[in-house]
Write a structure and sequence with these properties.
Elements (H helix, E strand, L loop, with lengths): L9 E6 L5 H14 L4 E5 L5 H11 L7 H25 L3 E5 L2 H11 L4 H12 L6 E6 L2 H9 L13 H17 L4 E5 L4 H16 L6
Parallel strand pairs: 1-3, 1-4, 2-3, 4-5
Helix pairs in contact: 1-8, 2-3, 3-4, 3-5, 4-7
Bound molecules: ligand Z5A.
The site of ligand Z5A has 25 residues, from helix 1, helix 4 and helix 8.
Length: about 220
């Protein structure tokens, strides 16, 4: 069955630890609202009541999920998030911005933990069918910079933040490969720069790709 055509646009943000996604999503959401659009900001894992329950299982530092179980949990959360929150908002004409989506499963559970892309794409089709983001912004920072940013924050590291440097390097390469394989959907933004400069790069990308004019 072909993908439903929605009235709104779906933008996902991806990247490794400390890439600056949350910071930049707030700025993009305000700019889109200032240009007259209705915006829903959400995140994964989570974003709907059912998916937030699953998020608690995934980020529990005491849990020891294997890669297939972890991917199943991420796609279970995503299916609920899509059905109950993302699709209704897009039908309503909202622009939906999501902090992480399926490329995070490809990068973390695929490149990071070694699950096959074939398995991940099978789960994708079960959860989402032919649906895909209109635009995926991949914020790219060197691993050590992302880790410095995370270490400077308060709070205990979650399961993924505790992984070693080699894991985080595989993630970074994974996101770059995903972008290279999906140039019509993805754009890599160099995010090791002042927050204002990164914002300007993202606004330029969104304006160019989706045809909106944005004021910083
Ligand atoms: N995960 C998965 O394995 N599979 C999946 O399918 C999905 C997720 C969907 C969710 O964590 C975890 O789940 C995630 C992947 C895994 N791994 N981890 N950890 P989360 O939701 O708790 O957090 P996150 O998505 O990883 O976000 P983040 O790394 O916490 O941060 P961020 O949103 O990218 O960055 P930020 O909060 O905007 O900025 C981080 C800090 O850097 C903050 O202090 C900022 O003020 C600072 N910052 C931001 N930009 C800059 C610049 N340009 N210069 C200097 N400092 C900056």
């Amino acid at each position: 069955m072909p993908a439903e055509i929605f009235a709104g646009k779906f933008i996902t943000f991806e990247g490794g630890e400390g890439a600056g996604k949350s910071t930049q999503i707030k700025r993009l959401a305000s700019a889109l609202e200032n240009s007259g659009l209705s915006v829903t900001s959400t995140r994964e894992p989570g974003g709907s009541p059912g998916a937030e329950t699953i998020r608690g299982l995934l980020l529990d530092t005491a849990a020891d999920w294997d890669a297939p179980t972890e991917a199943l949990l991420h796609f279970a959360a995503r299916a609920d998030h899509f059905t109950t929150r993302i699709a209704p908002a897009l039908r309503n004409g909202d622009w939906v911005i999501c902090d992480r989506f399926a490329d995070s499963t490809r990068a973390y559970q695929g490149y990071g933990l070694g699950l096959s892309m074939e398995a991940i794409e099978t789960l994708y089709r079960v959860a989402l069918g032919e649906f895909a983001p209109d635009l995926t912004v991949i914020l790219d920072v060197p691993v050590e910079i992302g880790m410095q940013r995370m270490n400077a924050r308060d709070g205990d590291p979650d399961r993924y933040e505790r992984m070693d440097i080699a894991f985080h390097e595989r993630l970074r390469q994974g996101f770059l490969d995903i972008a290279g394989n999906n140039p019509d959907r993805c754009e890599v933004i160099a995010a090791n720069a002042d927050i204002e400069i990164v914002t300007a790069r993202i606004f330029d990308c969104v304006a160019r790709r989706l045809g909106v004019t944005l004021q910083a």
